[in-house]
Design a protein that fits this description.
Layout (H helix, E strand, L loop, with lengths): L1 H9 L1 H15 L9 H20 L14 H22 L7 H4 L8 H9 L1 H19 L9 H25 L3 H12 L14 H9 L1 H15 L5 H25 L3 H4 L1
């Protein structure tokens, strides 16, 4: 973690510029251009809100156990998952798509996974602001747990950075990793408590949810945005507590593996 922080401080201007350039290049040549940075997450959030409010309306309840509507429950878990999914998908080709930079001895290739993570931050911010506005319209008030948003954001970004380092390194040696991550991302949506409520599942379903590490991320975000209380204390310990250790391990492994990147590219 010390090496990671030092890297960020030393190259923060370069990281910022490359993150900004990645966002710009995603929508280059399109009519709306960079406006899609804001328009894309807003469109997705509106789409899901319409689906679960109009087309498939549902209600979890207005009790202490289930304090808000189904849309808030789903969006609370969907926002971090979409962010993590986007970062993982793009991280698999971060090194291979920048082979010219990787082969330059003076270029710090450790910043490539970081800029992939930071480029996903605008989507996270816009989607979260949409959910906050939706909750204000629905409930006329926000729970105290919203003060924990910076903490869950930080934990999410640290975990995402760890995944980006791991997947970007693997992508150099295993070219199929991109397709494997795509399949996993699609399937994992149905193996987390985003579309499932744990109390309504059979024992096997409960077990699968608790074995899935992404469930703990989703539960933390649902505690903040849906429950309005710390409903899953173990998730907070595991999700927030493990983030710096996983990132430190991923950075160390990446630093050792990068010596072979040039030969494989």
């Amino acid at each position: 973690m010390n090496d990671f922080i030092a890297l960020f401080r030393r190259h923060h201007l370069l990281i910022w510029e490359m993150s900004r350039r990645e966002l710009r290049d995603r929508y280059v040549g399109q009519v709306l251009g960079s406006a899609w940075v804001i328009g894309h997450p807003i469109f997705l959030m509106i789409l899901y809100a319409v689906i679960f409010n109009v087309i498939f309306p549902g209600k979890l309840g207005d009790t202490y156990e289930l304090p808000r509507d189904l849309t808030t429950y789903i969006l609370a878990g969907l926002i971090p998952w979409l962010t993590a999914q986007d970062i993982m998908n793009r991280a698999t080709t971060t090194i291979s798509s920048n082979r010219n930079l990787v082969k330059q001895i003076v270029f710090p290739i450790e910043i490539l996974p970081i800029k992939t993570v930071l480029a996903a931050l605008p989507n996270l911010i816009v989607a979260t602001l949409f959910l906050i506005l939706y909750e204000i319209v629905q409930s006329r008030a926000l729970p105290w747990t919203y003060v924990l948003i910076p903490l869950v954001w930080l934990a999410l970004l640290l975990h995402a950075a760890a995944a980006a380092y791991a997947l970007s390194g693997l992508g150099v040696f295993i070219r199929d990793i991109k397709d494997l991550v795509t399949v996993f991302a699609t399937a994992n949506l149905f193996m987390t408590p985003i579309l499932l409520y744990p109390g309504l599942l059979p024992p096997l379903g409960e077990l699968l949810l608790h074995l899935n590490p992404f469930s703990y991320m989703v539960w933390c975000f649902q505690d903040v945005f849906y429950f309005g209380r710390i409903e899953h204390p173990l998730s907070w310990i595991l999700f927030c507590g493990s983030a710096p250790f996983l990132l430190g391990f991923a950075v160390t492994t990446f630093s050792r593996a990068k010596l072979a990147f040039g030969d494989r590219l």
